[in-house]
Amino acid sequence: MPHATQHADAAEDVATAELDTVLRGGPFHVALRAAIAARGLPLQRVQHHLSRHGVKVGVTSLSYWQQGARRPQRPESLRAVRALEEILQLPEESLIRLLENTGAGETAVVPGQPTGRSYRAFLEASDVLERLHAELECPLDGGLHTLSHHERVRIGSRRELLGHESQHIVRAHRDGVDRFVAVHHGDPGCAPDRMTVQALENCRAGRVRRHHDTGVLVAEFLFDTRLRAGETFLFRYAVEDGTADVSSEYLRGFGAAGGQYALQVRFDGQVLPVRCHRFSQHSAAAPRGGRQELPLSRRYRSVHLVEPRVRSGMLGIGWDWE
Questions:
Q1: Cα(147)–Cα(125) distance, rounded to whole angstroms?
Q2: Which of 217, 166, 165 lies closest to 191, judged by CA?
Q3: Residue 114, domain member (yes or no)
Q4: Are residues 78 and 129 in the same domain?
Q5: What's the pTM?
Q6: Last residue of a domain, one of 44, 76, 102
Q7: Is the Cβ–Cβ distance between 191 and 241 less than 8 Å?
Q8: Which of 53, 54, 127, 169 has the most CB within a 10 Å radius?
Q9: How far are the Cα atoms of 4, 285, 297, 313 from residue 70, in angstroms, in the given order?
Q10: Residue-wise DSSP of 48-90
Q11: Out of the domains of life, which is the source (predicted)?
Q12: In the predicted model, is pLDDT for residue 171 greater than 60?
């Protein structure tokens, strides 16, 4: 069928042209995604090819890299990028050059990054997060897909972040999942040693890890059952903070597309901000966008946003004090 062959050749030419363009101008994650798509390789096959090159990288990490939710920086990760250039039949140093041009580092999205925190601080917290997950012997994705996440944040009379409560509805995507690892990233100057966690519904608190320099707390919440792939579960927990100074935003990071997310911020009745807005950010290194003013209910002292289906990146609410 010559006609069909011509269409296939034309489509391949377009894909090749698009790949050439993003390899020249980036960004890194778009170029990587385009290269993988152009070769028609599922991530499991990419991982297999990397292992044959003596490089170990998880499918989750590869997914984060091509989504822009994490960028390679460690020596082992950079070895993987150079191997990917060979596996994906790309010009030598083409992907590495894009990383060097942006200067961005490897980072997992972390919830609750406060305003004024530098990208370097965010990167350090991301590295700490990975180490703490490793201590708990729990992968970053945890084997769970979030169907719904409702988060309630409380701001106190000193304008400080008092804490947050989360309700999750999740679905297991592999057998044997029996826990969830929650992350809290406090505002600058916070004291993780004074933070506490509480299991509220259908779970119990397990191990807790804290890192003072970055303000990261990681808590394990255990289920009373081992989920089978496809099974759903609902649970609720809280993290009490109140250890830092003035807070002016709260954000949540998402490593991959997921279900519904609702964020509500409630303020102390005596101290209310003058205005509130929502914002989004594709990655820690990307500029913020999606700014939209949000109405503040003075009667209920709260503001909220609802995202029907989240995408990888960050989403949050900011507010201005007088």
A1: 26
A2: 217
A3: no
A4: no
A5: 0.65
A6: 102
A7: no
A8: 127
A9: 39, 10, 36, 10
A10: HHHHHTT----HHHHHHHHHTS----SHHHHHHHHHHHHHTT-
A11: Bacteria
A12: yes
Residue 107 lies in a domain: no
Residues linked to residue 314 through DSSP beta bridges, in sequence order: 253, 281
Residue 216 sits in a domain of what CATH number?
Answer: 2.60.40
Q: How many CB atoms within 10 Å of residue 89?
A: 9
The better pLDDT of the pair 5, 229 is held by 229
Cβ proximity of 258 and 169 under 8 Å = no
Please report the pLDDT score of residue 262 as a whole number. 98
Distance CA 56, CA 20 (A): 27
Q: How many domains does the chain contain in total? A: 2
87 and 145: one domain? Answer: no
Residues 135 and 26 in one domain: no
Structure tokens given for 291: 């700014």
Q: Are residues 250 and 283 in the same domain?
A: yes
Q: Which helix (H) or strand (E) holds 21?
A: helix 2-25
**pLDDT tens digits along 264-293:** 999 997 899 999 999 998 776 667 788 999
Start-to-end C-alpha separation, the chain: 70
Exposed, middle or buried, 24 (CB in 10 Å: 0-12/13-18/19+)?
Answer: exposed
pLDDT band at 29 (very low <50, low <70, confident <90, very high): confident
pLDDT tens sequence across 61-109: 787 787 766 778 777 788 898 999 999 989 888 888 887 654 433 444 4
Model pLDDT, residue 103: 41
Residues in the chain: 322
